[in-house]
Design a protein that fits this description.
Number of strands: 0
Radius of gyration: 26 Å
Structural class: mainly alpha
Helix content: over 70%
Distance between the termini: 87 Å
Oligomer: single chain
């Protein structure tokens, strides 16, 4: 049985395909996290505004 040290073109193509899919998945996850953070900050600001109104009513 011959020893296989070198990668074939098919091996490289498969590895590149896997790497591209992994990067695409990571990019989608980052986009989703960015949207989640944006929603949380919006909600935080809304709640801070409500708190400010309630505190001014107590004063």
């Amino acid at each position: 049985m011959p020893r296989r040290d070198a990668l074939t073109e098919d091996d490289v193509a498969r590895m590149m395909d896997r790497a591209e899919r992994a990067m695409s998945s990571t990019s989608k996850q980052q986009r989703s996290l960015g949207q989640d953070i944006e929603r949380l900050l919006t909600e935080r600001n809304r709640l801070l505004a409500i708190i400010a109104v309630l505190q001014s009513e107590d004063a």
